[in-house]
Structure formats: C-alpha cells, structure tokens
Amino acid sequence: MLLLRAVLLLLALPSHGQETIEGPEVLLPVPKGACAGWMAGIPGHPGHNGTPGRDGRDGTPGEKGEKGDPGFAGPKGDTGETGVTGVEGSRGFPGIPGRKGEPGESAYVYRSAFSVGLETRVTIPNIPIRFTKIFYNQQNHYDDTTGKFYCNIPGLYYFSYHITVYLKDVKVSLYKKDKAMLFTYDQFQDKNVDQASGSVLLYLEKGDQVWLQVYGDGENNGVYADNVHDSTFTGFLLYHDIE
C-alpha cells in the first residue's frame, strides 16, 4: 500500500522543474526547500472549529411591508375633562312653521253690566233711588222697579255715579247689603247747577245687592234731572271669581 502511494506521488511531480502544479481543479504549491523527490505525508485530521467572528454591520433597511390587519379594539378609556365652552355661533335661519293646531275650546266670557239714568227729580230719602232711564242692561242684572243691582256672578265690580245738583244740597251714599260703602256730599250754589260724583271697586258674592240712595233728611235731596241734565248710575264686572 505504501508503495502504491509513492508511485502515485512520483507521477504527480513536475516534469520540467515548474514551481506549481496546474490542474483542471486545484493548484498545489510546492513546499519551499523541498527536494525533487519528496514524498507527501498522510493527510491529517480536520482541525477544531475556530472562534465565531464578530457580528457584521446592519444591513440596508428593506422595503416597507404591506399594511397589516386592524387589531382588536381596546377597552374604553376614562371620560375626559369638560372642554372650554366655544364661541357662540351665528344665528341660524328660521325653521319651517309647524302644522296648524286643532281648534281649542272657546272660553266662556262672563258678562254683567248696567248703565241707567234718572228720568224725574222726584226722589225719596233713605230708600233706593229708582233710575228708570236704561242706557244698557242686557243681562237684566239691574232691576228698575227696585233701583237695585243684583249680583249673579261673584267677582270684582266697578261702580260709579254722576249726580246733577240743583235747588238743594246733595248727600248720597252707595250701599251694599244694607251697609253704606261710599258717601258723596255737594253744597248747592244759589242760581247754579252743580255736579257730584263718586266711584268704587267692590267684591260681590252671588246674591249681593248694590244701590244708591239719598242719605239723611229731605234737606239733602238736591238730586236733579231733566231733558238736558242727567244723573246716572253705572256698574260692571271686572273679572269673575274662579271657583
């Protein structure tokens, strides 16, 4: 076996003293100082692996990848603090008018009023003066046979009177339920026609009566009326009492 290896090595030696052996695959350098007839030894065993080298430099960044799928929604965060109120915006355009509503129930209007005058100067003291000249008494709440107004609707009423004074002094009073509520006195001036008047607000219950009468004796009975001078008595409901 050794003889065969020696023959093969002799055949592989250069024929013309070249320093290198050329072949189709490898170039084997000739050891320095070797003789022309040297013999190669048996190949040794592979050596141990060397120490790993240092990490190389970072490579060039690659191209941007495609967008990934959306991740799962995270839990709802805490409510933030209220922000600062913004500046008031400009006024908007008027909206479209709504539909017409259904007709409502008509409100009942309470009415009670009268206005009457004196047709004759004949009056009797301390009884109701009968004003028989009717200007207005549509509800018939004034009775011209007694001279009294009868309350049919409880509420607040306004009463007034205007008296022509002639020949004697006048002292009249406005009564409510047999109680004098208002007094008016006027002293007659000789050869002159004078005037006396009064007005008052009264709350009346249903069934109350209001009238005007001469107060005292006949010396204060100067109430007068003719075709050019009037003495009047008026009253009307301001608002009714809501039950």
Strand fraction:
25-35%
Which secondary-structure class do the elements indicate? mainly beta
User: What is the average of the pLDDT values?
Assistant: 82
Shape label: rod-shaped
Helix content: under 10%
Query: How many H/I helical runs?
Result: 1
Q: What is the alpha-carbon Rg in Å?
A: 68 Å
Order of helices and strands: HEEEEEEEEEEEE
Largest β sheet strand count, sense and barrel closure? 10 strands, antiparallel
Q: Point out poorly predicted stretches.
A: 16-26
Per DSSP E runs of 2 or more residues, the count of β-strands stands at: 12
How far do the termini sit from each other? Answer: 145 Å
Biased composition (Basic and acidic residues): 54-69
Organism: Eschrichtius robustus (California gray whale)
Keywords: Collagen, Secreted, Signal
Subcellular location: Secreted
Please describe what this structure looks like:
The protein is mostly beta strands and 243 residues long. It has one helix and twelve strands, in the order αββββββββββββ. β1 and β2 form a beta hairpin. The longest helix has 10 residues. About 5% of the residues have low confidence.
Q: How are the secondary structure elements laid out?
A:
Layout lengths: L1 H10 L8 E2 L6 E2 L83 E5 L15 E4 L5 E2 L4 E3 L4 E22 L2 E8 L7 E11 L4 E6 L6 E4 L7 E9 L3
Antiparallel strand pairs: 1-2, 3-4, 3-12, 5-6, 6-10, 7-8, 7-9, 7-10, 7-11, 7-12
